[in-house]
Amino acid sequence: xxxxxxxxxxxxxxxxxxxxxxxxxxxxxxxxxxxxxxxxxxxxxxxxxxxxxxxxxxxxxxxxxxxxxxxxxxxxxxxxxxxxxxxxxxxxxxxxxxxxxxxxxxxxxxxxxxxxxxxxxxxxxxxxxxxxxxxxxxxxxxxxxxxxxxxxxxxxxxxxxxxxxxxxxxxxxxxxxxxxxxxxxxxxxxxxxxxxxxxxxxxxxxxxxxxxxxxxxxxxxxxxxxxxxxxxxxxxxxxxxxxxxxxxxxxxxxxxxxxxxxxxxxxxxxxxxxxxxxxxxxxxxxxxxxxxxxxxxxxxxxxxxxxxxxxxxxxxxxxxxxxxxxxxxxxxxxxxxxxxxxxxxxxxxxxxxxxxxxxxxxxxxxxxxxxx
Length: 372
What we know:
Largest sheet: 6 strands, parallel
CATH architecture of the largest domain: Up-down Bundle
Strand order of the largest sheet: 1-8-5-4-2-3
Order of helices and strands: EHEHHEHEHHEEEEHHHHHHHHH
CATH superfamily of the largest domain: Dehydroquinate synthase-like - alpha domain
CATH topology of the largest domain: Dehydroquinate synthase-like, alpha domain
Helix content: 40-55%
CATH class of the largest domain: Mainly Alpha
């Protein structure tokens, strides 16, 4: 038995831990940029809490709030240029996966000479970046602790990932109170993203005893608390357990990679703007059934972890049915006729290598058609 683990994250978890942000980031410098979106972090009060804490610790900052869903490499270049102009010493990402991925990439690539697109196309890194601090306001992406940034590649019309140890956060603050104002649909979609991370990690070809323990615990936490969090966003225990499940799933899949559900979901997002968590939710039960031939025992274990007395795929369908998200790709905005393009872009994903069952073009087509 041989495996390698890389878990260098500094993680602070707990209610109201965001209040101590200013003191914790003093070690990284006295000037930063906050990367976030236009609305949610402001309406939820998360941004105000961050600003207050930074001011108390005399950390100067400025705010970049232009991040939207499906961010591209040009967005990262914009943040890199602004950060350099202002002479910041570290970058804070606040929000969902999009804001965190932009902040992470801008920090990791801060001192590189080429545009972000070059590194998406596998150009090697030459220089160190600056510290990235991840503060999620959703419970789903795990981006605050992973080594990769998923960005839209305009030249290829697809979403691709840059993965590098220099993207590792120096500090992640997981404060469940920042998720209390998440709308039901986003709670459901982000939660299904986290559950897909955990399940695909659990069945990954790269899984090992430690990642199995992490992914298994994440499956259990999310399975027991997602519906509760959707039904009552102010349920403190459910929100805390979802935040914990999400970060544990992130620790697991950052080591093992994911699988075919994620490989297909990225082109669905790029071509049809289907939210990542929604795409994963729709794909997951069909992917489980596809993979079952090669890892049936793992799915039986997952079924137990989910707490049900039926097949894992059936439990996932039951879970999705109870939540306010689309149940099919067509409901989510998919348009027939571009299946071959999706297949082509799916095979650009490195995640297929970790899927427990080999995947052919026909298999991807069959999965897509069954999800319509």
